[in-house]
From TrEMBL:
Pfam families noted in UniProt: OsmC (PF02566)
PANTHER family recorded: PROTEIN YHFA
Name of the protein in its database record: Peroxiredoxin
Length: 138
């Protein structure tokens, strides 16, 4: 896997993935940015949430659940001093569908957290306290 980050100006960068997709990252005005894109640490959270959400949907579809929507709401805390690493991350999944079985959703979230989501497992192994929960919405 490869990625390329190109400096545009001030605190603005364009990141390009190995698959050829691009995203703008920028800093806040107080750090020389123009607020044109997500912050790099936000990007890390988005990547983790995308990884976990992909797993949950994939596992639920494999277990023949009729999922119609899945939202992952993420809250994170960072250290107060440099380096301002993440110390805690909580992912709350809101899953909706037709006749979803609560146990299947719970199992999908657990499997993502414990076995499949490389991003959250990597961050957990680095000392970040990661928690997950879910709710099923009709």
């Amino acid at each position: 896997m490869k990625a390329r980050i190109k400096w545009v100006e001030e605190a603005t960068f364009v990141g390009e993935s190995g698959s050829g997709h691009a995203v703008v990252m920028d800093g806040p005005p107080e750090h020389g940015g123009r607020d044109l894109g997500v912050r790099p640490m936000e990007m890390l959270l988005l990547g983790m949430g995308g990884c976990a959400s992909f797993d949950v949907i994939h596992i639920l579809k494999k277990s023949r659940q009729d999922v119609t929507n899945c939202v992952a709401e993420i809250e994170a805390e960072r250290a107060e001093s440099e380096p301002k690493v993440f110390t805690k991350i909580h992912i709350h999944f809101i899953v909706s569908g037709n006749e979803l079985k609560d146990g299947k959703v719970q199992k999908a979230v657990e499997l993502s957290a414990e076995k499949y989501c490389s991003a959250s497992i990597m961050l957990g192994n680095a000392g970040v306290e990661i928690s997950h929960d879910y709710e099923v919405v009709a």
